[in-house]
Amino acid sequence: MPYSTTSLEVLPAARREDARILVVSHHLTDFPTQVALLDPQGRLRGEYWHSGLLSTAEAVDLNGDGIADVLLGGVSRAHQQATLVVLDSLHVGGASVETGTPEFQISGFGPGQEKLRVLFPRSCINRMLEDHNVVEEIMLRPDSIQVLVRERIGEDVVRANPGLIYTLDRNFHFLTVAPTDVFTSLHSQLEALGRLDHTLTDKEMRDLLPQIRVLTPWKGGK
Asked: Mean pLDDT throughout 44-58?
């Protein structure tokens, strides 16, 4: 089957484990993504399968215990929504559980060992023009994490980013969401054309936060 590698990263040694190699690959024509951990000799030490495309990855020691957490962003095909998944780099295994959509369930694996799995709501623009949104970038800050969710995916906007930026603390409490300038401009254009029936407000942004769907609550802390 044709797969493409989207992320390749060396994780530092942790506890009694040697350094490991993180490889994220997705199927080119279908939905599965494999997150594989290899030892320095290239032997598979763990793998996690996701029913969707995880196209961005960041590894960071969130709580100072010397163990990297793997933050993965992309889209869940089972839910057709942008998703953020966090894995413990020492315990990578299973497959995402897709209750209610058996056609997307990856068989042959136990439940995924996620530390966190969330779905991001689709904005008014996304619901009107696309069939899903997608996490495009995960940005690590000293005291926070920012997740950029692209809401317009068509080729005509590939150079711009009509998206929303979600800010979280390092315990994955969602704090704020704000539109990019391109999102705000596109919203105004669609409103002027009569395709949207409302003006973009701060309340509309705040109302997105309670719509974030937590499939696996954060299993973090020391």
From this structure: 95
